[in-house]
Amino acid sequence: MTFTAAAAEGCFIIDPRTFHDDRGFFFESYNEQKFNEGIGAEIKFVQDNQSFSTKGVLRGLHFQRGEYAQAKLVRVSRGEVLDIAVDLRKKSPTFGQCFEIVLSEENNLQLFIPRGFAHGFSVLSDSAVFQYKCDNYYNKESEGGLHYADPQLNIDWGLPFDQLVVSDKDKELPFFKDAPDFGF
Question: Which pLDDT score, from 0 to 100, does residue 175 have?
Answer without folding.
Answer: 95
